[in-house]
Write a structure and sequence with these properties.
By secondary structure, this protein is mostly helical. It is elongated. 2% of the residues are buried.
Length: 98
C-alpha cells in the first residue's frame, strides 16, 4: 500500500503540493467563517461577559460602578437565559404536537 501511494505521489511531478496547500487553506478559512457565524448566532460576542465572573462577595475587589455593572449584566444574562429556555420548551412542545 505504501509503495502504491509513494509511486502515485512521485508520478504527479513538481508543483502538485501547492494545490494541496491551497485546498487545505480554503477549508480552514471556510471552517473559520462557519464558526464565526455560529458564534454570532449564539450570542458569543458579548463585551460585558467579563462582569459575569464576579460574585456578590467580590464587592470589595471592584469599584462601585463596576460592581453595579456586574449586577446589571448578570441580571440581563439570567433574563436572556430564561428567554432562550422558554423558546426551547415552546419549540419542543410544538414538535410534539405535530
Amino acid at each position: 500500500m505504501y509503495d502504491y501511494i509513494n509511486g502515485y505521489l512521485e508520478s504527479l511531478g513538481d508543483g502538485w503540493s501547492i494545490y494541496l496547500w491551497l485546498v487545505a487553506g480554503a477549508l480552514i478559512i471556510i471552517a473559520c467563517i462557519y464558526w464565526i457565524i455560529w458564534a454570532k448566532k449564539h450570542e458569543q460576542f458579548d463585551e460585558d461577559i467579563k462582569y459575569v465572573i464576579f460574585q456578590e462577595d467580590d464587592i470589595d475587589k471592584m469599584s462601585k460602578e463596576d460592581y453595579q455593572k456586574s449586577r446589571e449584566v448578570i441580571k440581563q444574562q439570567i433574563e436572556r437565559r430564561d428567554e432562550v429556555l422558554a423558546q426551547e420548551r415552546l419549540a419542543k412542545q410544538q414538535k410534539r404536537a405535530t
